[in-house]
Each structure stands twice: as structure tokens, then as C-alpha cells.
Amino acid sequence: MLVATIVPFAVGPDAQLLGRIGGGALWIAALTAALLPIERLVEPDRADGVLDQLALAGVTEETIGATKIVAHWLTFGPLLLLAAIPASIMVAIDGDSLLRCLVALAIGTPALAALSVAVAALTAGLPRAGALAGLLMLPLAVPLLIFGAAATGADSGSALKLEAAVAMLLVAGAPFVTGAAIRAART
Question: What span, in angstroms and rounded, lies between the C-alpha atoms of 39 and 54?
Fold first, then answer.
């Protein structure tokens, strides 16, 4: 909601301009929501030995990664989808564009959660991990953001398909990257 509140102040009250960039503003909000807790996604469990105890109990690192992805998505994804409805009024998104944006966010936010957990696992235990995680995550999230924002336009079919392909790749690969990073941090 904060991003949707600030955007009209930054670009002005032109409803036509706000309608064109509103989908991108909602995607910036989604990226921000996924990135904010990145330091707390894996590092506290690694530092406290929870990940080691789960490994001793026979839980694979990939299962831990997949569970963390689902948990992280549940903390921001559904709330973001709900907040997008009143936020669309502030950024002058019409009803059809809002529906396309909600579909794009529903497809893309699990991928943002997966990317966040994988990057959090890669940077766990490093000094200034939050800043490093942001630098690692932003270039990897750019294709998802481009296709997701483009999917809010009138001709959004191919952009939505490309976003779904990128999202499937991220969601499918992130548990394995997370598991490998957790194993590497243990050695």
C-alpha cells in the first residue's frame, strides 16, 4: 500500500500515466515485500542449529527449502493480492487491467518467494547479507518483473506465458539451490 501511495506523488496525478505504470508499481511492491525479510528466512535457523537438527532427523535440505518457500509466500503473497485491489484505485488501474495484474501477481509471487529463499540460503552467515542478497536477487528477478508488468497490458497473452515459464523455472529450481547452499554452509 505504501508503494501505491507514493507513486502518484512521484509521477503526478495524471490518471492515464498512472494507469500505464500502475502494474509496474504493484510489481515493485511485490519485489519489496519478498525482499524485506530476506535476512531472516534462513540465517536464524542456520545460526541456531535448526537446519542441522532437521538434517539429523532425516529431512532433506530440498524439503526444507520447499517448505520455506511456501511459508514465505504465505506471509506476503495472499496479502499482496488483497492489497492490490485498493492500491489499484490509487494508481488508476481499471478493472480489466487489475484482473490481469492479479493473475500475473498470483503466478509471479511464488517465484519471488522461491528466489528470495534461494538467495537467503546462498548468503546465510555472510556479513551484510541483506545488502548482498538484494544485489544478487534484483538481476535474477528482472525477467519476472518485466513479463509480470507487461502482463497487465491489453495484449498480455504472450507476456503472461513468458512470466509463467520464468516462474516455473524459479519455483522448480529454488529448492535444489537452497538445499545445495544449506549443505555447503554446513561444511
Answer: 20
